[in-house]
Amino acid sequence: MRILSGKDLNKTYVNRDREVRPLQHVNFELHQGEILGIVGESGSGKSTLLKVISGIEKPDSGKLYHLENEYTGQGPEKTGKFLRMIFQDAYGSFDPRMSMERSLREGSDESREEIMRVIGEVGLTEELLSRRPRHLSGGQCQRMSIARALLSHAGVLLCDEITSALDVTTQAQVIKLLLEIRDLEKISIILVSHDLALVSMICDRIMVMKDGVVVEEGKTEKVIAEPSDEYTCKLLDSIIAV
Hints:
Number of strands: 10
Shape: globular
Strand order of the largest sheet: 6-7-8-3-9-10
Distance between the termini: 38 Å
Mean pLDDT: 93
Largest sheet: 6 strands, mixed
CATH topology of the domain at 1-82 and 190-242: Rossmann fold
Number of helices: 9
Radius of gyration: 18 Å
Helix content: 25-40%
């Protein structure tokens, strides 16, 4: 079942009298229980696409749909009912003055029992709830971000480079957690990353973006084994070189 989709999305910025087009006629689909990876180098448009999907930014043209209902132009206060964004900077996404428990309770009417259930689900302990963000490790803070998203009961998680600031071991733990949550909560995930190797380990399908254009899209195993675009081949070659 299709959960989210975008049709012919376009976005242009003017930067010092120069036009930058991070989205050019972009189409996408996300299905129930699927993890879709959006990959590309810096400036490819992948993070802009996530901001447009979430409602943080509006497309210049094109349409967005949730369960076939158009939601183009709706801001985060509306889209937050069915999707949640998890940012690269986990620390910056929390109020530094608040305890984690207060942050998790903000805007939520969930009981403490439910908060504790979700905290356990993301691999954290009760004693961390009394801490402020700066007293958590990077991995712990990102897990708190995921817990906050789960407490919203949104059916879609939008993950923007959420492992890039973490060490390799913690990256693997967060990726494993996303897979477990997908299976347990039956949610759908869009994972944006510059790391094709990481995306290929977790995602069911991959979209490759370059200069605001989707240059390749398909099932992960096919894109990795039989890339059809020269840019995808370049990304794959960089993995092999490493």
